[in-house]
């Protein structure tokens, strides 16, 4: 088997040198354990924070040890009666092609209920749930709201925008980093407007796309996107603080948002969240989004990279915004 | 009668030249109106925003017209049966020594229920209600919380800190701008700790005063105070965004808070509010705080300036932090 280890910690932007691919004998499952052949693994922006040696809401990756993260695969050897050989399971030991886990640490999923097993890493998995919880519970989305989503062509943003439309948003606006992604948002996902944040200041483009202001901002980006959203938010507006990918590789603190004091007079609510504390919403999420998926009402483009050796470069590409939809590695 | 008019709009810090004292004949009340001899008028930080010609949650003051704001006085002539001569009333036409108002625009208050009528401008009035609503409803204070209040010797902060103590806070910390105010907070108001924000960085002093972090931050100041609070807030911490006096006179936007992205992992909630949308809480507030006042459990120091002509200078002193407790003008 092969696994990818953290070779060194980055300062600023990570590089391929921070990762090391290692060959090992494929392990045997012990009592109560299963051996999983991983079919897909996930790369996600939050992993950048785990490369730093700082305490956060997830433990940092350890130097010289394999990275980890969500993966889906097939059980190929089992010492656990309730997880038979052939089962498709979701678990937390990505960044390797084979994984041994206690049966309690895997969750069986139904491969027939998804277009591809990788959907359990994206639309039907953590990033989909993040979009669902962030929009509905954190930002308290209500029918008729005008919604702005940054990083809208990404795994979380693309679902947040679609859920807003399906739940009756008046208008959904997205930002992304290329003309192609902007077309994808409008033509394929049904966003009412979208813009390339590299073309002109976010504040100007957002005002043009939302002349009557916005009621909800789903923030995946931070920085000047957040500042622009605060400026465009209407009275009683709500912000779900989900990510700040614009600043994950910054070595100096960001200057924005400089207009947070506007939150007083507008009576805004800004609320941070991490999805792992909202797993109780998984059944509602799977029921609602699963039904939209079966009805063809929600789309889940993925950016698929082949082979474990390509995972570090795929992860770096994700941080540079090279993905559309969920970025996954096919093993 | 005399009134104070807006002579010009300030850029940055206001000066005495922005105000003009004008003599007029004392007006007569029309049908359904009363003539009030103002006893006290209020100066408040929010009035700084009204000196700018920008739309906000309160209309700007008009050039060449009298300023306005909360005042309390005695009815000296009345054409309204329900508001007799001799009644003490609260109303919105401060910055003058006599005011004519429709009876519907005054609220009778009980002078015997307060140590001085000016209490209806502070502890039992708008600033007290602001503290009450901000702490309990906006920041969702819970017994056992550790609370940090900035501008803690001011009209709002001093009440917010005392209400937190009386409602069972584990620890209440205040910041203020002089050694005398720091002593006042600890020795007279019962704060557990207080510091002078001019002595050292707020972040360092707050960490020392709250080694186990804070659960609630009541923000009257913005800027580096808000940044320090975000840094010290514990998981699920809550911020009431009430004011940003540190930046009301700034002509460039503030750099802070540069660490707002910490709100994601800590799952913080930041919520702005203005008290005028929370008047429905007035009965609860008057019942609870009034009882504490009668029992001698809550203190309400005032900084009293004599005479209408001194009002502009008193207002400027308020913006410089020269008051302890509510700043009022005795007419």
UniProtKB/TrEMBL annotation, chains A, B:
Keywords: Oxidoreductase. The keyword Metal-binding does not apply. SUPFAM superfamilies: GroES-like, NAD(P)-binding Rossmann-fold domains. Residues 15-329 form the Enoyl reductase (ER) domain. It comes from the Bacteria. InterPro entries: ADH-like_C, ADH_N_2, ER, GroES-like_sf, MDR_fam, NAD(P)-bd_dom_sf. It holds the Pfam family ADH_N_2. The keyword Thylakoid does not apply. This is NADP-dependent oxidoreductase.
């Amino acid at each position: 088997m092969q696994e990818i280890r953290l070779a060194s910690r980055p300062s600023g932007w990570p590089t391929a040198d921070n990762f090391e691919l290692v060959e090992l004998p494929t392990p045997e499952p012990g009592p109560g354990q299963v051996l999983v052949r991983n079919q897909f693994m996930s790369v996600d922006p939050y992993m950048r924070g785990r490369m730093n040696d700082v305490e956060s809401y997830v433990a940092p990756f350890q130097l010289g040890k394999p990275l980890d993260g969500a993966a889906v695969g097939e059980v190929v050897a089992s010492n656990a009666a309730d997880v038979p050989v052939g089962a498709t399971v979701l678990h937390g030991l990505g960044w390797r092609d084979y994984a041994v886990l206690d049966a309690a640490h895997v969750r069986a999923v139904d491969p027939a209920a998804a277009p591809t097993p990788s959907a359990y890493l994206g639309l039907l998995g953590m990033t989909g749930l993040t979009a669902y919880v962030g929009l509905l519970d954190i930002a308290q989305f209500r029918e008729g709201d005008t919604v702005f989503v940054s990083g809208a062509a990404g795994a979380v943003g693309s679902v947040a925008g679609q859920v807003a439309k399906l739940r009756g948003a008046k208008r959904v606006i997205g930002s992304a980093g290329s003309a192609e992604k902007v077309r994808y948002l409008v033509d394929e996902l049904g966003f009412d407007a979208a813009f390339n944040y590299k073309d002109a200041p976010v504040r100007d483009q957002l005002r043009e796309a939302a002349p009557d202001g916005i009621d909800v901002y789903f923030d995946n980006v931070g920085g000047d996107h957040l500042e622009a959203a605060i400026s465009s938010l209407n009275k009683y507006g709500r912000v779900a603080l989900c990510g700040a990918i614009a600043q994950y590789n910054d070595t100096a603190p960001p200057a924005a948002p400089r207009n947070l004091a506007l939150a007083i007079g507008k009576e805004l609510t800004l609320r941070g969240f991490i999805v792992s504390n909202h797993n109780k919403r998984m059944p509602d999420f799977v029921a609602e989004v699963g039904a939209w998926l079966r009805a063809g009402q929600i789309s889940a483009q993925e950016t698929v990279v082949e082979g474990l050796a390509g995972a570090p470069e795929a992860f770096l590409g994700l941080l540079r915004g090279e993905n559309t939809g969920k970025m996954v590695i096919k093993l």
